[in-house]
Amino acid sequence: MNLLQVQGLTARYGDFQALYGVDLHLDAGEAIAIIGANGAGKTTLMRSISGVLRNAPEMITLDGAPMGAARADEMLMQGVAMVPEGRKLFPSLSVEENLLIGAHARKAAGYWTLRKVYDLFPILHEKRRQPATSLSGGQQQMVAIGRALMSNPRVLLCDEISLGLAPVVIRDIYAALPQIRDSGAAVIVVEQDIGQALKVADRVYCMMEGRVTLSGLPSELSREAIHDAYFGVSA
Amino acid sequence: MIWVDTIVQGILLGGLYALFAAGLSLVFGIMRLVNLAHGDLIVMAAYVILVVVSFLGINPFLAAAIAMPLMFGFGWLLQRIVLNRVLGEDILPPLLVTFGLSIVLQNALLEGFTADSQRIGAGALETASFAVGPVTLGVMPVLTFLSAIAVIVGLNQLFYRTALGRAFRATSDDPVTASLMGIKPASVFATATGIAMIVVTIAALYLGMRANFDPTIGPARLIYAFEAVIIGGLGSLWGTLAGGIIIGVAQTVGAAINPEWQILAGHVAFLVVLLIKPRGLFPRAYD
Q: In what order do the strands lie in the sheet with A65-66?
């Protein structure tokens, strides 16, 4: 059985339909990437899985249990943690407090502790007393990832973690991914950077206009196929 | 020397206003909710203490300790059942609902306790005093002031030293992201209002022991509390104490010049601070 299964997921904002029947699945320990242009529905998909947007129960299942209607706090308690788009750190909290609040509700025993997060991103230990939003963009992204890891999630959702960051910083952040996978978390990475996504993922889903237009193993997908699925036109 | 005495009495009076304001400041700081029924909730808590005192025949401080969990529960339910439903982008619905709550509370108290003014008897404590150099201090005003300091120190400890305080601040920053941390904003808000009602009970204890009260005096207490919060800067508890002290000193100085100017002087001080620093003395760095 899949750890996480999304089936026929639809989502709308008022009159605007953002997702038209999206299907995907994630196995334990697996990493998948979701690529697509702006407005393809990637973030809406993440917000649905994390419970920020709520759906019909059977549209999202976790270990076979229908969770589509669960709230964000319930999804977290079930082990689905999210690194939201734009990082969304708490400005009133220091770096360390931002990390600690990740384990506020779900105190699951596991690999990740404050110490392990500082081992993963040593710069955060140095800056632990500073207000989180005083850090550079890349360091803030590290806080956001560390905060999600503190709950020892079974599924880690990473929404656009490279957006707005310099290439060298993106490389540093993606360098943490193998260790996150080794800790046992399955990972969903949402990316606009196709190269980055193909490098880290076991499988790739490409989205366009609220639908999955292509999916498969990175080695099997040709540049042309991805290009078509991404932009909807042949090059 | 009379001026030293006037100013010291004003500072101590500021402690009472800070107590009125601390609960308001707490709730506003966490959920951006302006509770227009705050003054009436203080009056209601004073009646709860009065009832406990007269039924059990115990010391008012003990009675307040019994009233605190009752008021916490009332605040929790009020937030959970009523106020959480009206929180949102639009600030008008919570204003209307708490305005309505204010009217409901006043009329319920009138029905239950009549319009007669009441007082919580504190025995010898009411008139006890001691001399510090040239100034004579009433024990009750000093106790009030020390309680205000204790409440603000306590709330600051809660805010900045505990996991619950961390959840308060995170939820205040961003309730949606807080829910991604497994936090339930609705129960965080309910707990915050419950804690605010404990502070309200402490304020009510001193309100009732220091002067007469009746069901209609709530809105005037709300105005002092509101002014103290605004002077101090929204969301800053020490600022709220400073705001209370500024109003208190302005009132005693105004009264020393002409007794008719007491209330007016407090309001004028509020307006002057707003003219000079529109965001208050200690505003939060971001908003």
A: A16-26, A4-13, A60-62, A65-66
Structure tokens at A20: 């038209």
Domain B2-115+144-276, architecture per CATH: Orthogonal Bundle (1.10)
Q: Which of residues 228-267 of B touch A (CB under 8 A)?
A: none
DSSP H/E element including B26: helix B2-31
Q: Evaluate if residue A81 carries a pLDDT over 50.
A: yes
Partner residues linked to A215 by β-bridges: A205
Task: State the pTM of this model.
Answer: 0.91
Of all residues in chain A, the percent with pLDDT exceeding 90 is 79
Rounded to an integer, the average pLDDT of B179-184 is 96
Residue A145 counted as domain residue: no
At A176-220, the pLDDT tens digits run 999 999 999 999 999 988 888 888 999 999 999 999 999 999 888
A83 domain-assigned: yes
Separation of alpha carbons A36 and A56, rounded Å: 25
Residue A130 within any structural domain of the chain = no
Residues A20 and A8 sit within 8 Å (Cβ to Cβ): no
Domain of A199 in residue numbering reads as: 4-90+154-231
The answer to whether A84 contacts B169, with C-beta atoms less than 8 Å apart, is: no
User: By C-alpha distance, which of A139, A135, A206 is closest to A169?
Assistant: A139
Q: State pLDDT tens for residues A8-22.
A: 999 988 889 999 999
Q: Which CATH number do you get for residue A202?
A: 3.40.50.300
Yes or no, beta carbons of A101 and B166 under 8 Å apart = yes
- C-alpha dihedral, A116 to A119 to A124 to A128, nearest 10°: 60
A84 Cβ under 8 Å from any chain B Cβ:
yes
Cβ count within 10 A of residue A2: 16
Domain count along chain A: 1
* Domains of chain B by residue range: 2-115+144-276
Residue numbers in A near B163 (CB within 8 A): 100, 104
